[in-house]
């Protein structure tokens, strides 16, 4: 086995790369830029088109030039790789390339990890451990990141991100050293820092703190005045709450900077509330303030929960503004409060109650004053806020608290109001409102209206995301914004709200940063799911029980619960899923593939029995997971997994009309697995021929059935052989062959000898179909009656309905149209209950002909329209699968009506849902007094 090389790539300064410690020659500027684009993508795949545009701009060469550059980079970074060995570092993915960050050391990623670890240690009260970690992170910088790539579009956002993280890391290191008592030694460095970063309020706070703790109160206040002047001159704003609190503490010399001030009376007489005035219309939640107010009337503590950007703060403010409290309401913004010890002082400052250094004392001062306290963004201080609110409510009888948090405070008497995503129409209203402000006079066309609705669905109805998207209308069309959502964190930025809401990424990172390591790990692993999942599925991909972590993620609004499901199902918002996508490791994808395969193995046998409806519902819910697992296996070149899963899903695909997609998976798997044994190829080939039958490709289906017969005989699988021979006979008959009955009867005998009821009734159904083809109508009818009776006993709804369908066609051939009508109605209702698609469509199509022949041609035309519409949803046409009878049945309906009337009723049928069709069929059956089942 080849020894793995150790590759390191540096972008924090001039770009460098080393392989096993030796400097690697990365080539000219364009080649280096190609590698830099992949590094900047941070483990995400980048399309060839995107790389060419980023590196060459408008004069991009053909894709072959890029591929040659990638080939050279692979040789440079993996010098020992054999020609037939897949690359380990720069891998092909979809229509582009991805740099596997787990296969190389990248200084920018190491820096981010160290900076994050250092901040976590600092926030955890471990400053002595945080300082060396932060110093190590900052030591990785050698110069301007990506500096040599100038104005190339990929570099600017990554450079800004890294510079921002570096600024935060430097300030965290200063903060840690202040905690360790290095006040005087830091003053010079902090003065230099504020000169270089004059708009960083945190930097000014650190400088003033260092000056004050060094005994220089006057200089500390002068520094704060300097900060006020710079912010006013540069940005036209006043200092934020952190600087204001620090200035008040220094002036008062309270406990945190050297002494506590005397208590002073409340200032509420001069100011009764501090709610900011709204800067934009309140759109999309017109009824919700009243709902929250009703909760406040019944409960002294109401907490608005939901994910970041869902609109909790705005809803709280709209509710508070409408209240008639005599003293208040008061807004306490906690997002910028990092030190839990300052919570009581912050509450006292907002309420104008000096000297109340504890929540208990503050509650005593408030007494019976009637007011509402709005505590905004409590999630990072949940424990200390919980204690403070408990103390306040127990001592201040007139107080009510309206909190916003990504998780509830979990206090007795607390009412929790979950702020839900906006429905599509309300999301559209919000988008158009904000877009009108960004682009005055713009009126969306019909195509843009549809794009806006689709965009709101894709953004999970998240108001912040919708507003950020609308703001981009200044520079992008709605279609461009929607197309850019695959990289939504790059597109949804430059918001006008607080820092954590100025980009969608910051909003998610804020929530992510509040998780424990175990919760983060589970969240990252749950990102492998494409749709909803239950607790067992979560445990499967995590490799252990995860109830505690999953419960915490639900409480913290990062995982949603699908109401009314049993067992309960969960789902990640698309935005959270996108955030976790690059954090899903190969071991998680392997666990996901194993879980999908196990679920399919458990469901496949149930499709042939009484529990088929539940199995179909389960597999339908898991269909997005099938796609993820199949894609993952093919990207790994694991065709055998794909063959195994395709064989298990074959009958489900057939019933649901998943034709083109299923054939694509099977063909790719067969191509990838030329040496696969018959135990894998046999079921896959049988699945292939069935799907080709639905597509009307009978010669190709016959060839695939031939291959399935050979595989079954090589394997010695009598059950598989019987199925393959029966299908070979059927497809041969559809291709015009005449010697189809003897093989079918032999396969029927073989099926009977095996004693498997579902296989026997399937063999009877296909044999009955072939007997009808041969003109042996009486024998066909007897065989189909036997098939239906056996299928009903063993619960095989598909075969029961297929047998009824064939009997119905015999009745139509013989002119027994009322009997055909009864059978058709019964078949449609049975298949609807079972969740079938393709057989249901052909049943509806045939029922249309029976209606036309029994004096109801308009109802028949309506059902033809419904069959055409519902078949088109899955790419299925009855005329292609049933070319002998379906066109004639449709013509029977057309011939019974003048064209204009037919077109009217056909169009009406295209708008019908399955539930509406079921109601119509039930009504027709009652009105005609037909029996539930035909006489066979």
From TrEMBL:
Basic and acidic residues bias (residue ranges): 264-273
Domain of life: Bacteria
Alphabetized InterPro entries for the sequence: BTAD, HTH_77, OmpR/PhoB-type_DNA-bd, P-loop_NTPase, Sig_transdc_resp-reg_C-effctor, TPR-like_helical_dom_sf, WH-like_DNA-bd_sf
DNA-binding region location: 1-101
SUPFAM superfamilies from the UniProt entry: C-terminal effector domain of the bipartite response regulators (SSF46894), P-loop containing nucleoside triphosphate hydrolases (SSF52540), TPR-like (SSF48452)
Residue ranges of the region described as Disordered: 254-273
Keywords, ordered alphabetically: DNA-binding
A Pfam entry, by short name: HTH_77
Annotated PROSITE patterns: OMPR_PHOB
Domain OmpR/PhoB-type, residue spans: 1-101
Recorded family membership: Belongs to the AfsR/DnrI/RedD regulatory family.
Protein's name according to its UniProt entry: BTAD domain-containing putative transcriptional regulator
